[in-house]
Amino acid sequence: EVAGEMGGGAWLAFVVAFGVAGVSALSLCELVTKYPGAAGVTIYVERAFRRPTLSFAVGLAVLASGLTSAATAARAFGGDYLTELVTVNATLAAAGFLLLLSAINYWGVLASLRMNLVMTVVEVGGLILVIVAAVALLGSGDGDLSRPLEFGDGDAFVPLALLGGAAIAFFSFLGFEDVANMSEEVQRPRISYPLALFGGLAVTATLYVAVVYLATAAVAPDRLADSSGPLLLVVDDSPLELSGAGFAAIALIAVANTALANLVMGSRLLYGMAERGIMPPQLRAVAPRRSTPWLAVIVTGAAAFALAVSGDLGGLARTTVLLLLSVLILMNASAIRLRGDAVRHDHFRAPAWAPWLGVAACATLVAHQLATGAPWDALRAAAIVGAGLVVYRLTYGRRTADLPQVASGPTAPHDAVGPDATKATKSETPREGSHREI
User: Which are the contacts of 301, defined by CB distance < 8 A and separation ≥ 6?
Assistant: First the structure.
C-alpha cells in the first residue's frame, strides 16, 4: 500500500511514521507510568478534560482501532500468503483465524503473551530472511539500487505523497499505544514501560526501514503495490531458491501476531471501561478458572469479524490509522494539561516539547487523510464511534454524574492488578491517598 503511494521511496514514509509514533510514545510513557490502569488513554482524557462523554468516545476509538487492526490482519490472512499453502474462502479463513486467536485470548494473558513472543521471534526471522533474499537478488545483478530514491510516479508532489505514505505506514507501528491497557497486569511499570516502548519502536523501525528499502530496490514498486503478499515476491525472485510456502507460513504467523495483540488489548480495554462504569457492567464478567474477561473476549472477536467483511485491506488500515491518530491528538493534549498534576510515585517524564509536537504531527496526518483519503474510510470510523456514543447516551448519558470519576489528587502505584493478575482482587476506582496493592 505504501509503495503504491510513494514508489521506491516508500522507506522514507516509514521513517516519518516512526518519528510520529516516537514523539507520541514519549507522552504515553509519561502518562502510563504516572496513571497505570486498564482503561488506558480514557483515564488520561478523563483526568485532563473531566468530560465523561469525551472519555467514552476516546475509549471507543481506541477499541475500534484495535478491532479494525485485527480485522485488517484477518483480511490479510486470507490473501496471497494463505493461497500459497491452501485454497480456501477468504471469509471462512478470517472467521477461523479470529476464532482461534479469541480462544488463545480466553485462555489467559500469559498464554497470549507467550504466543506473542514465539510469533514475534518467527516474524523477526521472516523479516531477516527478506533482507537476505533481497541482498542476494541485488547481488546477482537483478533489481535496481536507484529505485529507493525515486518518489511516486514522478508527477506527484513529493511532500503530499510522503504524508499519504506515512499515514498508511503508521499502521505498521500501531501497538505501542496498546501497552497502556495492560498496565494493571505489569509489575514495576516505571522500569518496564520505557524499555518496552522505545526499545520495541527502535527495533521495529530498523527492521521495517531495511526491509522496505531493500524490497523496493529488488522488486518494482508497482508489483509490490499490486500484491497482497508483497514480501513473497522478494523471496520468490531471489536466487537463493527459498521455499515460498515456508515463507508464506512465516508471514501468516506475523499477521496472527498483529491480530492477537489487538484482540488482547481490546478485551482488556472493554473490561477496564466496564470497571469505570462507561460500558455495560456485564463486560466485567471474569471466567472463574481462567480469570480472563470472557464476555469481552467474545465481543471483541465477533466485532473484528464483522469489520473484516466490511472493507478491503487498505481501507481497513486507513480507518485504523485515522482512529488512532485522533486518539493520539487527545492523548498528547492530556499530557500537556496533566504536566503539573503531581503523584506520589516516581514516573517517566517526557521532554516538555514532546506532547506539543505530537499534537502537531498527528493532526497533520489526520488532515491529510481527511483531505485525500477515500470518504468511506472516514465514514467507517465516524460510524463506529457515533453508534457507540448513541448507545452510551441512551444507557448511561442521563446519569453521567453518577459515573466514577478519577481522583484529581496523587495516586499510589500498584502492581499486577487486573483480570489476569495472579491474585486478582476486585478493581476499584482509586481515591485520593489510596493504595492498590496485592
Answer: 98, 99, 101, 102, 105, 263
Of 36, 33, 26, 43, nearest to 408 by C-alpha is: 43
Which helix (DSSP H) or strand (DSSP E) does residue 186 occupy? none
Confidence of residue 19 (pLDDT cuts 50, 70, 90): very high
DSSP states of 311-367: S-HHHHHHHHHHHHHHHHHHHHHHHHHTTT---SS------TTHHHHHHHHHHHHHH
Note the Cα 429 to chain centre separation in Å. Answer: 26
Beta carbons of 272 and 181 less than 8 angstroms apart = yes
Q: Are 416 and 422 in contact (CB under 8 A)?
A: yes
Q: Where are the alpha helices (DSSP H) in 148-243?
A: 158-169, 189-194, 200-218, 221-225, 230-237
Distance CA 256, CA 120 (A): 10
pLDDT digit string, tens, across residues 210-255: 999 999 999 999 999 888 788 889 998 989 888 888 888 998 998 9
pTM of the model: 0.76
Query: In angstroms, rounded to a whole number, what is the distance separating the alpha carbons of residues 56 and 388?
Result: 9
CB distance 80 to 255 below 8 Å: no
What distance in Å separates the CA atoms of residue 7 and residue 147, rounded to the nearest whole number? 8
3-state secondary structure of 431: coil
Q: State the alpha helices, DSSP H only, in 35-108.
A: 41-49, 52-77, 80-83, 90-107
Length, in residues, of the chain = 438
Distance CA 231, CA 242 (A): 12
Contacts 24+ apart (CB under 8 A), 390-393: 392/53, 392/56, 392/60, 392/278, 393/53
pLDDT tens across 363-418, in order?
A: 999 988 888 777 888 888 888 888 878 867 776 655 544 444 444 333 333 333 44
The CA-atom distances, in angstroms, between 408 and each of 35, 46, 198, 318, 431 are 11, 10, 29, 36, 9
Percent of the chain with pLDDT strictly greater than 90: 27
pLDDT single digits (tens) 134-166? 999 999 888 888 899 887 665 556 788 888 888
What CA–CA distance (Å, rounded) separates 419 from 425? 8
Mean pLDDT of 194-202: 88
